[in-house]
Amino acid sequence: TSGVLVQPQQPGAECPEDSGDYCGLQETNSPFVFLSVALKFTDKHEWVQVEGGVGIVGISNYAQEALGDVVYCGLPEVGQRLEQMDEFGALESVKAASELYSPLTGEVTEINTELAENPGLVNKDCYAKGWIIKMTIEKPEELDGLMDQAAYDKFVTSLE
Amino acid sequence: MMWARLTVGAGASGLGLRAAGDGLLRFVGAGCAGRRQQQSRAASTETALKKTPLFDFHRGQEGKMVEFAGWSMPVQYKDSHIASHMHTREHCSIFDVSHMLQTNVHGKDRVKFMESLVVADIAELKDNQGTLTLFTNEKGGIIDDLIVTKTDQGYLYVVSNAGCADKDSVHMKARLAEFKYAGFDVDLEFLDCALIAVQGPTMSQVLQVGLKEDLSKLTFMTSALATVFGVPNCRLTRCGYTGEDGVEISVPESRVVELTETLLTNSEVKLAGLGARDSLRLEAGLCLYGNDIDETTTPVEATLVWTIGKRRRQAKDFPGADIIIPQIKAKTARKRVGLVSTGPPVRQHTPILSPDGKVIGEVTSGCPSPCLKKNIAMGYVDAAFAKNGTAIQVEVRKKAVPATVSKMPFVPTKYYTG
What we know:
The structure holds two protein chains of two kinds. Chain A is of the alpha+beta class. Chain A contains five helices and nine strands; from the N terminus they run βββαβββββααβαα. Chain A has a domain at 46-151: CATH 2.40.50.100. In chain A, the strands form two sheets. A six-stranded antiparallel sheet of chain A has the order 1-2-3-9-8-5. In chain A, strands 4-6-7 form a three-stranded antiparallel sheet. Chain A starts with 39 loop residues before the first strand and ends with a helix. Chain B has ten helices and 20 strands. Chain B has a six-stranded mixed sheet with strand order 11-12-13-10-4-14, with helices on both faces. A six-stranded antiparallel barrel of chain B has the order 15-18-17-16-19-20. Chain B has a five-stranded antiparallel sheet with strand order 6-7-8-5-9. Chain B is globular and about 60 Å long. The chains are: A alpha+beta, B alpha+beta. Chain A: Keywords: Lipoyl, Mitochondrion, Transit peptide.
């Protein structure tokens, strides 16, 4: 076959439980490939998904597993402008704190306010309900520099 | 994201899992994020790490192994940190603490010997009673915290921290040489048996099944020799580091896996690692040597005056007594306190500020409390701010966050007193 056929994953839709790092992609019989909704990954384990010209950002399954139960999310303000790789927040578990780095250059348009009451969403549903921020995409070419699913999976394997 | 700050307080040995500037989480063998070169550096040190008799067993149980004080130890198993922590508070957990130093002190003059090193009244202990005490130095600082038990078997049984094992054994051997030279009868025996802690409200119901003796007679801080689930020559001490009712069992090396497996056949019991151990002890208000107390903190600053025996305060006959005893009356400039906050978690080295923003101290350990769902911490503050209920601030990521000085334990302890 010519590759993985995808259907668009709607933000907020439930991830299949055993989806692991393939959450966000579903094999279908459709001949259409909607590349704009494929996840791109940074080597710091954030993912970004483009939806209607906006970048949705979260952390990967590998990252949430290593971090442990998230108990606190430190998030930026809406309107904050971020350069690629700028620190924009932090996730805290009982034992560890991890900074979050912006995968792209743009402006924060929305933060996931659900995470204040329910920080565990980052663990339970890291690719959908556990999204962290949404941002504008000032430099779409930055997406080309990020890893696709296959490259990220390879990267993760190289770490283990 | 970068694994910038894993805070398994590993203390003065400098082996805290705080990452280097490039953000590597030094989980040895746990397969966490990080650059390849650092990963392989971690892998090469893994071969040099010491292993307890339960090492292979931990790996078989999917333990995530990390370096701690030169040992390869499990930080957690399959269950999440919070699940493991709560299981200990509601049921019963087993912790491998075989990395700690266990010593028997023999000889007619063993009490005099031990008292020359620690602040406790050892002579007044009843047979088989133990006490938490401190090794102090000539400057009044704390070399280590430890438990000394006066057994009825002709020796003192001493358990001290893994991170201080080299330092403590050198310290004890030096004093031994002095005592022997002076003609006293003392000998040291460093034990090579395993040590497991069984902690939680259902510990006694789990353990009683495997004991002939009545566990209800073994009260907090007392010790006994016993055969446990068919394993002879175990020493059971009713103590622990979680705030729960529990025991530490010193087990012959060759039988510890068998005993641990037997305990795990009871569905009440799960394995727990160093992660849960740290959040449990902090909730219980117990110090971690290297973080909350060290050679630069006196027992008075550390609010540990209660460890100094009544007779010893009069006699002033322990190392650093001429510095420590006057501090009891005169008070110290800083004091160790508990603090509680909400918002971003508070960790070691977090600055503590007065309400008007002046630096008044520093956090020595902290974590989100799984039980309280708030942030708890210990730190030293200027004595003027040390009263319970005092409003203070902590500085997290350059922002001042309100906090309150709190009594400890943060979570009520449940020691079994009979």
